[in-house]
Design brief:
The protein is of the alpha+beta class. The chain is about 45% helix and about 15% strand. The protein has a three-stranded antiparallel β-sheet with strand order 1-3-2. A hairpin with a 2-residue loop joins strand 2 and strand 3.
């Protein structure tokens, strides 16, 4: 029996905000902190915490500097970050294929009201 597609999801990447950070950062060479904050609708503190998790995992680098007289923070997606985002999207596509495939269970609107039980293992064990 093969693994379920959800087993390939990365807990660091899959969290909604962190997935958003990686997706936005993937679209540019670098992304500015306030742009990320505003785009994702986050507080500065919340964004900082998620960036810390991604930086610790090696998925982004954070550079601080100045643009004119204003302090700026830029986020760069690393090679590992690009790969992690790619792997996450691939796992999500596999999950969608499974859920929408011909062997998919009926959706709520198609359900006859009875409980759906897991299929028994091929070796006959429950």
């Amino acid at each position: 029996m093969s693994e379920h597609p959800t087993s390939s999801l990365d807990d660091v990447v899959h969290q909604r905000v962190r997935l958003g950070i990686l997706a936005v950062a993937r679209e540019a060479r670098r992304v500015e902190f306030t742009f990320l904050r505003d785009t994702l609708g986050l507080t500065a503190g919340n964004l900082s915490q998620h960036l810390g998790v991604l930086e610790k995992a090696g998925l982004v680098t954070i550079d601080k500097g100045y643009e004119g007289r204003r302090a700026r923070t830029w986020i760069h997606l690393t090679k590992a970050g690009r790969q992690a985002l790619h792997d996450e999207v691939t796992a999500l596509k596999a999950l969608i294929r499974q859920l929408e495939g011909p062997a998919a269970l009926p959706g709520p609107e198609e359900h006859d009201g009875h409980d759906v039980q897991a299929r028994p293992a091929e070796d006959g064990t429950p």
